[in-house]
Hints:
- About 45% of the residues lie in helices and about 15% in strands.
- The chain is of the alpha/beta class.
- A five-stranded parallel sheet has the order 2-1-3-5-4, sandwiched between helices.
- Helix 4 packs parallel to helix 5 (about 115-125).
Amino acid sequence: MKKIGLASDHAGFELKEFVKSWLDAKGWEYEDFGTYSTASCDYPDFAHKLALAIEKGECYPGIAICGSGEGISMTLNKHQGIRAALCWMPEIAHMTRLHNDANVLVMPGRYIETEVAAQVMEEFFGTEFEGGRHQARIDKIPVK
């Protein structure tokens, strides 16, 4: 696994700090693209940095967090090489990897407890893309 990319806004900062400790416990490398505090900020500033790093092959996969998870997901998914999936339960994380080959896990910082976030990450990182019929669908996602 390459270095995992991380990004959040102020509403996702505390959960991102938990994610970093979870990754440290696994011994996995990561790069934090910000934000670095709970001071109010704009999620697109950090989402774009993460997306560009993934598209350049510098990081893979990514984890992104904002208050609802929606804004940072929308921003990430504007990038052609990103398939960001908003996950708030392990079963969704499983399916987004299995069928959609999601390359960014997005979590809602204001609406998910750390215990559930840990389960979501376990499922996301523990599930491989199934391929097959799903690859043709993924190939149709980018705007050409």
